[in-house]
Amino acid sequence: MATPSLCFVFSLLFFSATVAPAERIDREDDLLIRQVVSDADDHLLNSEHHFSVFKSKFAKTYATQEEHDYRFSVFKNNLLRAKSHQKLDPSAVHGVTRFSDLTPAEFRRQFLGLRPLRLPSDAQKAPILPTNDLPSDFDWRDHGAVTGVKNQGSCGSCWSFSAVGALEGAHFLSTGELVSLSEQQLVDCDHECDPEERGACDSGCNGGLMTTAFEYSLKAGGVMREKDYPYTGRDRGPCKFDKSKIAASVANFSVVSLNEEQIAANLVKNGPLAVGINAVFMQTYIGGVSCPYICGKHLDHGVLLVGYGAGAYAPIRFKEKPYWIIKNSWGENWGENGYYKICRGHNVCGVDSMVSTVAAVHISNH
């Protein structure tokens, strides 16, 4: 069965919410509105005001009155969609996004890259690791293995950010040096294909797969520094790969078991992991531990797993929730400073379905 290539890109506004748990569940007043106005402004609780705030925040302008009215109708539908997400995912906070004037079809067309790709034939399965002595909490950010949050823009290149983030961590473990590597090299130069399936290739802003990106990096000899091959968010330029400026090189890569303890063990031992996920709830995510009652397993976004926690207080369900810590590539003004927490257990949103680890070899440039 073909594996879909990945990318789902949004940049969302981070709002703070001070809503009591009972209000989140029981009140019919729109939670979204309570996130953008104070209690003193209850008389302004209406969609027209929301839309006005939205346009001001994101400098939205429309060419005609007809376009304005259409976008307003789309915006109102997206308010309802985010409200639905809040009810389905009460342990997180959901709200208005900078793309709340776009229809789901426009989201898919502009920010979702899908191509049918299989895992490379030489992708090895990671060996089973002991799990007895795993720490209860672990975060590679605390150990210096994670670069700052990046922004892929309106380009379906999440797969390259996921792969590069994993290689950045592996290079750090191999050399002790944290280097920001080039996603644009993969966008421009990686056209690795599945020889058994015609047209199944990594394709820049139109999507790709992290394991295929590792395959490309292995064959190319490595990846350049970001400063030597900066990100543009476009895929129509020529490949500018300079082998003399390789900064990190892939030694090997493996696919990790679906078992969450094995995923945690590989994370702790081998560094941040490239992960596929269903991003539907990420579109409206603001903060907290996302643990939706219902979430599809169709993978449409590539992210980086950097850590996990034993439990975070979930005010709706009144209990501790173990969670994964996900580095996203939609900028720091999305989610929790660019990060996403999703609960561990039961393969929520397919987060355990496509996990890969990469090892790096030491490369020195003088």
Automatic annotation (TrEMBL):
Annotated ranges, domain Cathepsin propeptide inhibitor: 51-107
GO biological process, one term: proteolysis
Keywords for the protein's UniProt record, in alphabetical order: Disulfide bond, Glycoprotein, Hydrolase, Protease, Signal, Thiol protease, Zymogen
Domain Peptidase C1A papain C-terminal: 134-359
A cellular component annotation (GO) from this entry: lytic vacuole
MF term (GO), any: cysteine-type peptidase activity
Gene3D superfamilies: Cysteine proteinases (3.90.70.10)
Signal peptide segment: 1-22
Pfam families, per database record: Inhibitor_I29, Peptidase_C1
Family: Belongs to the peptidase C1 family.
Protein name: Uncharacterized protein
Biological source species: Sphenostylis stenocarpa
